[in-house]
From TrEMBL:
Lineage: Bacteria, Bacillati, Actinomycetota, Actinomycetes, Kitasatosporales
Protein name: SpoIIE family protein phosphatase
Region annotation (Disordered) ranges: 1-50
InterPro entries, per the entry: ANTAR, Bact_Sigma-Reg, GAF, GAF-like_dom_sf, PAS, PAS-assoc_C, PAS-like_dom_sf, PAS_fold_3
Domain ANTAR, chain residue ranges per copy: 59-120
Keyword Lipid biosynthesis set for record: no
Any Pfam family the entry gives: SpoIIE
PANTHER family: STAGE II SPORULATION PROTEIN E, STAGE II SPORULATION PROTEIN E-RELATED
Domain PAC: 528-580
Entries under SMART domains matching the protein: ANTAR, PP2C_SIG
Coiled coil: none
Keyword Hydrolase assigned: yes
């Protein structure tokens, strides 16, 4: 609950509102603490001894007396209502009624204000009475903790008395906050008035600073606020925390995380405004009793807003239908429209609820979708004349909403359905609904199907750059549409060009084609078409196509010729450009195919897909090369297996980055360089170091991976090193394991680098596999997973090394379409 303080003032005890409190929120409730000369706080007693302190205390005392006097006046108004009830029932005078009220209060042990509220409740039996009774029954089962708090009935009746006695909505808002909303924890309230143009005006407020109220005095139509949302949706809007919402509203900066409730207020189906209540802290969903209490306060606001000069409007009742005073101007406006229009006035039942609209006027342009005359609709109720307005089209709901909120509604191509007998007739129309004072103007424009098709045809001709013509051969009259004048580059007031004169406007080289076209249409009386170059008066030459057909009478005589011209310049130049592109593309494809063929021949010349086994005592060597499936993907994979002068056997595989002729030529350079360097007798690590120098200095931007091994047949040992390549795989028994990886970056990355070297002793029956990444690489998995799959496949026993290599290539799961090199070595 917000901080509050009891009322003080000269009010008499019998008129004092029991337990009433004055809200101390907003700019008016901020109590200024006295400060010293240095700006620091000073003691209150010391401040009161100064002139400024005494003045502040006097202002505070007078303000409290004014608020207390206002609360007492609201209480006296409620007591006066109760006296009036006693005068009517007891047939006594005012003095006797006052004495009777005081006597009854003493006997009941309650204050005169509480007794007055009970008397008014029993007499009125309205919504406030039901609400107070519900709270009373709830209180009887669960007594309130604070006996000093006034009952709900007293609070509501006091707020009602203050609102009805107030001279304007501002005073009514202050009374609602002081008597009914502050006990609920609310800190501020705003009453918005809805104008005919759907704008909002701040009619009354309490708890907000004056400067804030001035800034929010007017909200134009279309501005999305919390009050606008409640007005448009015509329902109560509950906001738990304003910081979580993007809706602006009055006082949001003061209470950024406060809760809000906004609900529309109005009577007779028309929403006159919005009641917006502000809490300082987040607000959880309220129980039904509190919501009903707030709805009762909204009804008080509706009656207050109806008394405003700018919102008061005469509403027709069910018994006596009286047109609103502003309907004559709306009738004049409707008669000046070229579209069908209806002037509608609301029709209320005996309880003041909107049930229908009456057709007050039908303008002269009115066309009924069912074909009925104007007098069949004039004076009838809307749902009687058009019962299908409720349902599919939701026309009645749209009219009802416009009347309630004042926000106009417009849409295109709404289906209107009229019921004639038992047959429903549908028409498509553009709809406009607007509120003017207490009336609604409904305008519709029935869609003309012929006009719509003509409109579509006109757009199609414009987009297709087509112009139509018709030539009457009997009278010589030639008719063109506007598009054809634009195609010819002639002003619209110039005479059309007849077909006989077409050669005068065409390129001389196309004269023969046009004469053949005219002879086919005019003499042979058959449809024909021809393409020619049109030379326009502005010097522009356009490529055109003319299509024509003869119109014959029943005797076969030629009466007229109908046809169309189409500007095909874009198509012509597109065809020319496509032809040039096709020629260039064919030449490029031929060059690419030739380059790929040469690259593949070069690669096969150096490394055939299969090679005769290398003869070496105690060792079986097999090699495989699988080229890329696409010739454009020819890469730089290479292998080598050769016996050196030292009787050692060099085994190498490598992969040059990239594809095409550059990768293939770089592969040749590295492979031949490795062979030449190997005759020096250096070890694998040294060979890779020298090969790195070749890749970095003696080639252009070449990088590659490689693995190199030297096998000694006498010692059965393999010395090997690698440069960024996958390590070899050793098959021993039924186990397949990769050799421990040695350090070494790829070739050509750095100018000078060293490589590590390892030595492995091979046993009889061991098989060593050296391969490039085309054997295992996949786009959708890591290299480690692909290598694990290779180890599983290679671990299967195979009696013949050649078949084992073929099996590895066959069951390879790689999907990169890259070429692959594979060397297998088995110790016998």
């Amino acid at each position: 609950m917000t901080t509050s303080q009891p009322l003080e003032g000269p009010a008499s005890p019998e008129h004092q509102v029991p337990g009433a409190r004055v809200e101390t929120t907003g700019a008016e409730s901020t109590e200024a603490e006295p400060t010293g000369a240095d700006g620091t706080g000073v003691d209150r007693a010391e401040a009161q001894s100064t002139g400024v302190g005494r003045l502040a205390a006097t202002v505070e005392r007078l303000r409290g007396e004014i608020l207390a006097a206002q609360a007492a006046a609201d209480g006296r108004a409620l007591i006066e209502l109760a006296k009036g009830v006693l005068i009517e029932r007891l047939r006594c005078g005012p003095a006797a009624a006052a004495r009777q009220l005081a006597s009854l209060a003493r006997e009941a042990g309650v204050s005169q204000l509480e007794l007055a509220a009970d008397i008014v409740n029993q007499s009125s039996q309205d919504h406030l009475t039901e609400l107070a009774s519900g709270f009373a029954s709830l209180a009887n089962s669960d007594p309130p903790a604070d006996a000093d708090e006034p009952s709900v009935g007293v609070r509501l009746r006091t707020a009602e008395s203050g609102a009805l006695a107030a001279g304007d909505t501002q005073a009514a808002a202050q009374s609602l906050l002081a008597h009914a909303l502050s006990p609920l924890g609310a800190c501020a309230v705003a009453v918005w008035s809805a104008a005919a143009d759907a704008s909002l005006a701040l009619a009354g407020h309490a708890g907000f600073a004056e400067g804030e109220a001035v800034r929010w005095r007017h909200v134009p139509p279309g501005v999305s606020t919390l009050a606008r949302r409640a007005l448009t949706e015509r329902r109560t809007v509950h906001i738990t925390d304003m910081s979580a919402e993007g809706l602006p509203s009055i006082g949001r900066a003061r209470h950024p995380r406060g809760g809000r409730i906004a609900l529309p207020v109005g009577t007779g189906g028309r929403v006159n405004g919005v009641l917006e209540i502000c809490w300082p802290n987040p607000l959880e969903p309220q129980p039904p009793q509190i919501l009903r209490q707030i709805e009762a306060l909204a009804e008080l606001c509706a009656h207050t807003l109806e008394s405003r000069p700018d919102t008061a409007a005469a509403l027709p009742s069910a018994d006596a239908w009286v047109p609103p005073s502003d309907v004559s101007e709306l009738v004049d406006l409707a008669d000046g429209l070229y579209d069908p229009a209806l002037v509608l006035v609301p029709h209320l039942d005996t309880d003041g609820q909107l049930t229908d609209f009456r057709v007050h006027h039908v303008n002269n342009s009115f066309v009924d979708p069912a074909g009925r005359p104007r007098n069949a609709v004039h004076g009838a109720r809307l749902l009687e004349a058009y019962p299908m307005a409720v349902g599919g089209s939701e026309l009645f709901e749209k009219i009802e909403r416009v009347y309630a909120t004042g926000e106009p509604f417009r849409t295109r191509r709404m289906t209107l359905t009229a019921l004639v007998g038992q047959v429903s007739l549908a028409a498509v129309a553009d709809i406009s609904i607007s509120r003017h004072g207490g009336c609604v103007l409904l305008i519709w424009r029935i869609e003309d199907e012929a006009a719509r098709l003509a409109h579509l045809l006109q757009h199609a001709q414009r987009l297709g750059r087509i112009g139509g013509f018709e030539e009457n051969l009997t009278t010589g009259e030639v008719t063109w549409n506007d598009q054809l004048f634009d195609l010819y580059g002639r002003p619209h007031d110039a005479p059309p060009v007849p077909l006989e004169a077409l050669t005068s406007y065409a390129h001389p080289d196309d004269a023969t084609t046009i004469r053949r076209f005219l002879r086919t249409v005019l003499h042979h009386r058959r449809s024909a078409s021809a393409a020619f170059r049109l030379e326009r008066p502005d010097g522009v030459t356009r490529h055109m196509r003319v299509i024509a057909e003869p119109v014959l009478d029943t005797d076969g005589r030629l009466l007229a010729v109908r046809g169309a011209y189409q500007d095909i310049s874009s198509q012509h130049w597109t065809e020319v450009a496509l032809a040039a592109t096709r020629d260039q593309l064919a030449h490029t494809e031929q060059q690419a195919a030739e380059s790929n063929r040469l690259t593949l021949q070069l690669q096969h010349a150096i490394m055939p897909p299969t090679e005769a086994p290398l003869s070496s005592p105690g060792l079986q060597i097999a090699v495989r090369y699988r080229p890329a499936e696409s010739e454009s993907m020819v890469g730089g994979d290479w292998y080598d297996a050769v016996t050196l002068p030292s009787k050692q056997i060099m085994l190498c595989v490598g992969d040059v980055a990239g594809h095409g002729i550059e990768a293939a030529t770089s592969m040749v350079v590295l492979r031949n360089a490795m062979r030449g360097l190997a005759v020096t007798g250096a070890g694998p690590a040294q060979l890779l170091s020298w090969l790195n120098i070749v890749a970095h200095h003696l080639t252009t931007h070449v990088t590659a991976t490689a693995v190199c091994g030297l096998y000694d047949p006498e010692r059965h040992t393999l010395r090997w090193a690698r440069a960024g390549h996958l390590p070899p795989v050793l098959l021993r028994g039924q186990q397949a394991e990769p050799l421990p990886a040695t350090g070494g970056i790829l070739l050509g990355a750095l100018a000078d680098t060293d490589y590590e070297e390892q030595e492995l002793r091979l046993e009889t029956g061991d098989t060593l596999l050296m391969y490039t990444d085309g054997l295992v690489e996949r786009r959708d998995e890591a290299v480690q997973d692909s290598l694990a799959r290779l180890l599983t496949t290679a671990g299967s026993p195979a009696a013949d090394l050649e078949k084992q290599l073929d099996g590895l290539l066959t069951h390879s799961a790689s999907d990169t379409d890259d070429d692959t090199c594979l060397i297998g070595v088995r110790v016998l």
